[in-house]
Amino acid sequence: MEDIDVIELSPFQGKKVIFIDTESINPWCIRQPLTGSPFNLFNALLTVSIAENLRKNLLEKELKNRDIAILSPYRSQIKLIARLVQEKKMTELIKPATIHRYQGKESDIVLFDIPEGFPKSVTWLNGGFGSEAMRLINVAITIAKSKLIIIGNISYLLSYLDIKSILRHIVLKILNHGNIITISSLEQFIPSCQVFNYRGFYYTVKADMEEAKEEIIISYPHISEHFITQFKTALETLINRGKKYTY
What we know:
alpha/beta; Rossmann fold; 2 domains; six-stranded parallel β-sheet; 8 helices
């Protein structure tokens, strides 16, 4: 049964279904090296920040008997989100879980995090009618009693989802109803990270490298000759100063 107090809760006051489109950031989705399970750091930070704001407003309005579920298809994404929730000491009211583990339950607010993005291809979510993907996506979007918030890259999903994909049909239906929120209007929800374009990224990393006191560890999905060329001078300077670097 819908709860008007939850529907009218900020952010996204008065909206029952919202799709937060991350297209302008185009966050990467990579796989955990040991398990191959996908995760998307930007999505995780954004999702937890929105959940934190919702939780704060629930407590301020004395709606402590309501709850927030954060769901995703992948274990690595939920593991990352759960760690962020624990670090912020927000386990009261906020329940991160894979869709598999949340079957048979309901929550007043559901945040459905779809991590898919470059360079990961869309595979499992491509399932159509009668597929396992359809069943689990149905679980994720129907257990929300009052407010459903989906986080994902709409352009990427529509580019790679099969025409028969259930998720594709859901995304198009939400688009047709106009309940789309862009990242540009959500800057207050991503205070713990910085977002750069291509040129800004290299300039900022170089500046950080120059400030390193002992060691630099670079984790970057696309180490290439171009990457090394961009940082050649900075790396040579580090070596001359006796600093270590790993990538």
